[in-house]
Amino acid sequence: MTSLETTRELPPPLSAYRRVVSTDIDVLHDTVEPYAVGHDLQALRPGVPLDGQVNALSVGAINLVWVRYGGGGVIVDTPPTEGHFAMCAPMAPMDIEYRVTKSRDTTGGGHILSHDEPMRMTPPPMMGCLVIATSTGRLTDHLARHLGREHTSPLRFYGSGEPGLVPSSIVERTWRHVCGVLDHATAAGGLHPLAERSLEESLLTAILLGLPHTATASLAEPEERPSHHLAGVIREWVEAHYQQPIGVTDIAAAAGIGVRQLQAICQDEWGLTPTRLVRGIRLDHARAALLAAPPGPRTITDVAEAAGYVHMSRFAAHYRQRFGETPTQTLNRTSTTA
After folding, report:
1. From CA 62, how far away is CA 139, in angstroms rounded?
2. Who has greater pLDDT, 309 or 189?
3. Could you tell me if 301 and 312 are in contact, meaning their C-beta atoms sit under 8 angstroms apart?
């Protein structure tokens, strides 16, 4: 089976977030543009009607929009994106043209829209295209958190010809994972704010690592020696905020360091990732609460929620992994010895 045949059998990305189904080119344009970047549309084959669909949503500061124009297809003209980042990930080969230099290409994967030059694209009519869009300001903030310092020069991405810090396939793997989680979250009743933050940051990180830009060399610089005197600051901050939906970048920002320094300190000091440090602190507080709590129909749920957990099955699995018994066994053992 070819990859194209496999793609046809799969549902389109963001199926749970359908915005519009329309044959009207203006309706499709007006639905896509708020989630993407400024652009103009013209029919590729004016005599053939469109059969379009748009799925879209925002994840933090990142917009995700999948569009299939169908029918005779369209030509997409985009101005320079300037202070915005936008990447098109077509589900099938897409012709692109740079309108000033007149260079042409056909891309089968993700392609960055130019910051400085108008472009023309012909997305595959039936297979569709996913657009990932955000501001370069948001990417710059995320970059600064990883570096532990401000990146003063403008952040600009290169369309092609330059390597990223890691293989560019990380971007596709990440957005496909994010889209899968988002579709599943709708069926499960929605996405927790901490999960949304995690998905946003995973996309931002994949973009910074997998795509070439003006700060790639800075990300490749060797790590500075970790400041171990910050270990106490890190742990105290987590202890004070473990009940909140905190993430790795929150901890790093509170300590005044970059994410990579935070990871190094946690590994050297405790042999843990920052995520596992937070998890351990949450579980230790949960165990202390269970040992002190009277049994009740919602005792375990209340304790888990107070420790920052949303999913009870995940709490139970993490708890048993750390303590060798279930939360129920802890609670029952406590009531028996009381």
Report:
1. 10
2. 309
3. yes
